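> forwarded from #structure-qc
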């Protein structure tokens, strides 16, 4: 494994693509978390369909917002990505257990791919640990 000083910096295109992916994921996740905290009608309706008790919706929203903020801070972004992976895995399981349509089952995984893809493109330390080989 190469040290940080030997890790190649990302190209400008890769860096900006990573920032864009990360920003889109952060915007979506913050909006979702705020909607849960505010208990907007569509969130409560979806919670009923997914058999999620209303009493836990605000806690889920706070958890999502905190994990997303941790991800958005460069010094803690890897920890945030790990926390968001757990959260999004739970969202995936919630949809799987309800035997719903395919897209809601896959969507949390797509968001997780944006979280990790954005981080991988903008973080040289991760590319050193998980090198992409040709």
């Amino acid at each position: 494994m190469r040290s940080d000083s030997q890790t190649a910096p990302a190209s400008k295109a890769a860096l900006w693509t990573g920032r864009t992916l990360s920003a889109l994921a952060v915007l979506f996740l913050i909006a979702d978390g705020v909607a849960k905290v505010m208990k907007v009608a569509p969130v409560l309706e979806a919670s009923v369909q997914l058999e999620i008790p209303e009493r836990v919706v605000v806690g889920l929203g706070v958890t999502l917002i905190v994990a997303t903020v941790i991800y958005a801070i460069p010094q803690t972004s890897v920890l945030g990505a790990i926390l968001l992976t757990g959260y999004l895995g739970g969202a995936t399981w919630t949809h799987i257990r309800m035997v719903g349509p395919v897209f809601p089952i896959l969507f949390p995984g797509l968001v997780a791919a944006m979280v990790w893809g954005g981080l991988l493109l903008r973080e040289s330390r991760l590319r050193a640990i998980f090198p992409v080989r040709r």
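QC bot note: The chain has one domain: 12-124. The two ends are 17 Å apart (CA to CA).
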